[in-house]
């Protein structure tokens, strides 16, 4: 499995290379300073043996081994590892975090302790005993470096052991001791440097701050304080987070990240809203297209007559034009049924009162005028425009002419006229019904009186009596 394989714990709070994750990180997604010591122990094992302690075909397999298996002693893979270093690796990689050095400083002191020369003398013959590789518990923790057991051999000296006390054997043993001490010193220097780098140096990891809900300036300040940088990855609409505030961050708050690394954030554009366009006067098809372009829907709320909006076109909308609404909001519209129609009948020769009442109740705008009529009785309708039966727009004008009876005619003044002239004057004025009375045959022959008197207004056909003397 690649060394770069990673495992992410629940909620994205712990992200790391699987080969160096501690058991508690794998099981519970939690980490502290002892988790760093565990990773340091794995690196020390890798430096000593040239390989990782646990391998597998998948990250899950490796994680399982971290939780259920002890890290092997380096000496089982490399014969040149001193017992003290074996014990150091055993303690640093204990599965129980309580059995490890409590932090990097304590671990560093134990690393440094392996560099101190062990007390030896030419006359002493020691063998170092390494505890067996068995699962440890809180009752039997792996011994610290300072507690490595040193015991004398119990067997009698053999010829080989006697030979090892010869000058040649002593020189060989001295060379081995010098070599082992040199290896341990180099390892201690390398591991100490690495511990400095990851704990207080440039490689130290920090906890990513929680940026959710902060403004861009506030998030930048929080990241700067933690030694991190901010990068706005994208912007998105959000119903809860105000505009220009952080919706999410990656890595999330609480994740361990390298000092100086960059946190990507998604910034809110505020609540997504669409302005309702003006739909009045549009056809349903035009309104549907206009709303679809804005991710809005349409439905017909009602139909009503409208004298200004043609049939099938939109009269109004709810919400009204200009209001802001959420995506996929349904806009309800009222559609015109066109101008409302009404039916009328003919009221000619009918009572003007009836015509006025019925036409007004039907919704017509009635205009009436009085006219003289020699044929239609007073108070009756002489004419109607438009005449019925007919269908007209509701609210349209209907004009009716109401008879006042025949027109009155002014009686002309006939005084001192001859009989012939008086007759002609009456006929020219419209009077065809007249009577000439001759009072004296041998008189001057002129009008001396008339009934009705001159200037009277009378109906056509009224009898005019003329007296001539």
TrEMBL record:
Pfam families: PASTA, Pkinase
Membrane-crossing segments per the record: 183-200
Skewed-composition ranges (Low complexity): 156-166
GO MF terms held by the record: ATP binding; protein serine/threonine kinase activity
Keywords: ATP-binding, Kinase, Membrane, Nucleotide-binding, Repeat, Transferase, Transmembrane, Transmembrane helix
Protein kinase domain boundaries: 1-112
PASTA domain segment(s): 203-269, 270-337, 338-404, 405-469
Gene3D superfamilies listed in its UniProt record: 3.30.10.20, Transferase(Phosphotransferase) domain 1
Chain intervals for the UniProt region annotation (Disordered): 113-177
Skewed-composition ranges (Polar residues): 121-131
Basic residues composition bias: residue spans: 168-177
PANTHER family registered for this protein in UniProt: MITOGEN-ACTIVATED PROTEIN KINASE KINASE KINASE 20-RELATED, SERINE_THREONINE-PROTEIN KINASE NEKL-3
Annotated protein name in UniProt: Unannotated protein
Biological source species: freshwater metagenome
Phylogenetic placement of the source organism: unclassified sequences, metagenomes, ecological metagenomes
